[in-house]
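Example for reference:
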Amino acid sequence: MIGVNYSKKYEHLYAVVYLDDGYVSWQLDKNFKGEEGDEIDPSTFMIYKLTNGYSTIERCIGKPLTPLMKNINLFKDKSIGIYINEDTLQIPELELIPIIRGHKIGFMDSKARIAIEPVYDNFKGRFLDRYDYICVKKDNKWGVVNSEGKICLKIKYDYILQGVVNYELEPWERDYLFTVCKEKQYAVFDNDTEFGEENTLVDFGTYDWISGFDSRLAIVRKENKYGMIDYSGTLVLPVEYNSIEEFYNKGKTSTKVYKVGKVEEIKFSDLVYQGGSDDNSYNGDYDYSPSSAYDNPYYNDSLDFDQQSEDFWESL
């Protein structure tokens, strides 16, 4: 480290490098743009000599380290690196950036200050701004934290699917709906007020299975029949269908529902904005055919969606 001190006796700034058995210092050039207590970037530090033909003096110059560079150096000292994923490469305006230390994940802010200590095994989601939430995994259980690192849903669930928004339909909408699974029981929480288990939209045991929310809608199953609920937990499509084509995180604006060998195309906007529809006048009635849209590497086509493995749901 090259520090900057001030000499009251000589009334000037000087750079100082501390050694094992003392220190060495040089007077800083009058054009140095820093102050006492700064650190100098070693890559810019230079010592030069001035002479008038009779005597020679030494001066030094350099650029002070910015707070960001200081924090980055601190990260290096602590063996903390940036966790590289699609978001860190493609979304430069992230509020918080994932970091990793010893296989544990945390988050830092844009000034390279640790916002969430690296203590988690995995995460899902992104901090686009300070109002966002993400899902975190620790000791093989999932929970939810906010941008301050506060645990908003206890880390005790087998998996959590965070709601996603179809921005084509609702470009300004945010979605903080969380489908949780614990011991093969499903519930839905939101953050409408003080986020936590008390914010239950759909309680455990209401349905046998619940998908993740997309475009503020989710698929539910009860006694081998399927329907759909909206962002308030209200049933907007009756639980009477043989199957419903999965749409979570697929960027769709509609889905297909199957009943008695036929399929109906249902637009999400009909359910979300009108509170559901009680007729079957949708376009596209035709004979049932299996969907080929399931391209997840962990998808098992011999199982229903509610029977897929934990790896399948974690990879969505």
User: Anything to note?
Assistant: The chain is about 10% helix and 40% strand.
